[in-house]
Design goal:
Layout lengths: L1 E2 L3 H5 L8 E4 L11 H12 L6 E7 L11 H16 L3 E6 L1 E3 L8 H11 L3 E4 L6 E3 L3 H10 L4 E4 L8 H11 L6 E4 L10 H10 L7 H12 L5
Parallel strand pairs: 1-2, 2-3, 3-4, 4-8, 5-7, 6-9
Helix pairs in contact: 2-3, 6-8
């Protein structure tokens, strides 16, 4: 059973089955402050079958020291705790920045594409890094975790997080657009332990294709027409 209809949910249609609850209806805007949005997600979670294996998608941003006091991160941490106490069988996948069609327009890639297309300035902190993952990998990741009998929380990533400034400049180059950015000082680089995840994915033969530049180029080529 898939709960949700956004970016993650649509990517997982091929592995939908009754014995698994794929909870993809979480708050996706990291800038969200409306408590009603968080309460809706929690209420929906409580409606799910406690006897089913629950797969929930959290975020690796819970390790970002600069985000600890935000409502979004506090909510995600609370949801993880609620799942651990309410669902005996659960897999919590903490995701990095996901790349694909649809999803929240405030997320990194649609935001950059729209800003570049419209000539709008973007503000970027000079030390901000983000791991990038194409959503097409998600079915393989979920299957690999379940096939391995994994239960609990896992940080999903392959250990390379380029600077957000470099991501933006690469997108500008691909779109042949002049950069329009304001750079601010900020400490946003943080370490995440991906060792368990990378070991499981290596054993399952799940890996990203090419470099981060290749992934950005594929995204731009596939979805630029929606913004440009």
């Amino acid at each position: 059973m898939i709960i949700g209809n956004g970016l993650l949910a649509n990517s997982l249609r091929s592995i939908d089955r009754e014995t698994l609850t794929l909870f993809c209806s979480g708050v996706s805007n990291s800038e969200e402050k409306n408590t009603e949005a968080f309460e809706r997600e929690f209420s929906l979670l409580c409606e799910q079958n406690k006897n089913s294996l629950l797969c929930y998608f959290s975020t690796v941003s819970i390790f970002n020291p600069s985000k600890q006091s935000t409502p979004y991160i506090k909510h995600k941490l609370n949801m993880e705790l609620q799942i651990q106490s309410r669902f005996p069988e659960h897999v919590i996948v903490r995701l990095p920045n996901m790349m694909g069609e649809g999803g929240n327009g405030t997320n990194l890639f649609p935001y950059f594409l729209r800003s570049i297309a419209e000539g709008n300035a973007v503000t970027i902190f000079d030390n901000t890094h983000r791991e990038l993952m194409e959503v097409q990998l998600l079915p393989g990741i979920v299957n690999a975790l379940i096939d391995a009998g994994f239960r609990g929380c896992i940080n999903a990533g392959f250990g390379h997080a380029p600077k957000v400034m470099d991501i933006y400049l690469h997108m500008c180059s691909l779109l042949e657009a002049a950069p329009n950015m304001k750079i601010e000082k900020g400490e946003d680089a943080y370490e995440v332990d991906y060792s368990d995840f990378t070991t499981l994915m290596k054993n399952a033969g799940v890996a990203p294709a090419g470099t981060w530049q290749d992934r950005v180029q594929r995204y731009v080529n596939l979805y630029r027409s929606q913004f440009v």
